[in-house]
Design brief:
Radius of gyration of chain A: 20 Å
Largest sheet of chain A: 7 strands, antiparallel
Number of helices of chain A: 6
Largest interface: A-B, 58 and 59 residues
Strand content of chain A: 15-25%
Oligomer: homodimer
């Protein structure tokens, strides 16, 4: 922005924002990866769990509140070739309150999982409310279906141009530390293209949710 | 214990323990799955992380402080047959302060993962300090190696007679809710027989730890 007319508006804005900016500067980085992480800290209450019968909505809820998950891929490592391999990856489906349901990742070819995906992009991601304070507070065992968890199978691919900005914004808002990761690791944005969804949120076994039902969920 | 001589010793012991016993009786069940869970609640500080160079010790540490993990198995589900499948399972490697390094599970043939294991027992378990408050408190992103996580590959098998008591004690102390799970689910004790261990606790890529190094670790 240039020009005198905008100059005074800018000064006003700066004056209004100054206290917040100063607070951000002087406060120590807290929470996972720094301030403004947008993740549900142990001290902050989670939004309420949707009705358990609404499995698609529960699935979207879990995807949104989790900021990491475990990804299963087929191993290309000589030691365990062809076996199922599991690893932990950070993720985000959108900025806080604006989840898309699409799990985005920030990956490097140096990661074991990525080496596996390059040979076979099929993968399964699992996320659990045990990762938040929900289950602990409610007294639900991590393996209890009441401690809801979801399983998303599909393929992991690089994010294309049109989705790049949203993926970047989604990840960096919730994982600010990513902005500092070394470029020598050749980081790239990826996503899980979901083909199968299982929701374990109540007794009676896994509920199958279709990708259509999953993406049709809207949050107010 | 019977007999008058022991009677007075017992009375003394009871008098000393009484306040603690009363406290246990009247306090509400808290934490995951009830009292005496032995798990590291968000309010309780974790023991300190071992030196990161001691990868075997870090691996044992992570296995011990985690009470669940994500297990990757090869899927037998028609929809995704042959793909890598991921699921969440509760686990315990021993009562608090007495970890063995062996991840024990309490499984039911009704679980998807168990159906998979029955066809192919090879599996990979991953556990992360992101499951505790460690990474959050230190400001480490879940995907940062500083937020240590481990990957254990091997085979999952039923626990044999000689190990049954320890497996049961290990699991039930940390997952008391398991004692209430319905017998109609045919629960059984299982373990991961570890063949390969990778530790990501520092920059520079995964460190390989042998099962021998892993089991040779002793904690004071």
């Amino acid at each position: 922005m240039a020009g005198r007319a905008r100059g005074s508006a800018r000064a006003l804005l700066a004056a209004l924002l100054a206290p917040a900016l100063v607070a951000l500067l002087v406060a120590p980085a807290r929470g996972r990866g720094g301030r403004g992480h947008g993740d549900w800290d142990a001290a902050v209450a989670l939004p309420p769990l949707p009705p358990r019968e609404d499995a698609a909505r529960v699935a979207r809820f879990v995807t949104h509140v989790c900021d990491w998950g475990a990804l299963a891929t087929l191993s290309t490592d000589q030691a365990v070739r062809g076996w199922a391999f599991a690893d932990v990856l950070s993720l985000s489906d959108g900025p806080p309150g604006a989840g898309s349901g699409v799990p985005y990742f920030y990956l490097s070819p140096l990661q074991q999982s990525v080496g596996n995906l390059q040979e076979n992009p099929h993968a399964t991601l699992t996320m659990s409310l045990a990762q938040t304070n929900f289950c602990r507070k409610q007294g639900f065992d991590p393996q209890s279906p009441l401690c809801a968890h979801i399983i998303l199978s599909g393929t992991v691919t690089k994010v294309n141009e049109s989705e790049m900005d949203f993926a970047k914004q989604s990840l960096f808002v919730r994982h600010p530390e990513m902005k500092t990761w070394p470029s020598s690791h050749n980081w790239f944005f990826a996503k899980l293209n979901i083909t199968n969804i299982w929701v374990l949120d109540y007794f009676g076994g896994p509920k199958i949710v279709t990708p259509e039902e999953y993406y049709n969920v809207t949050f107010q």
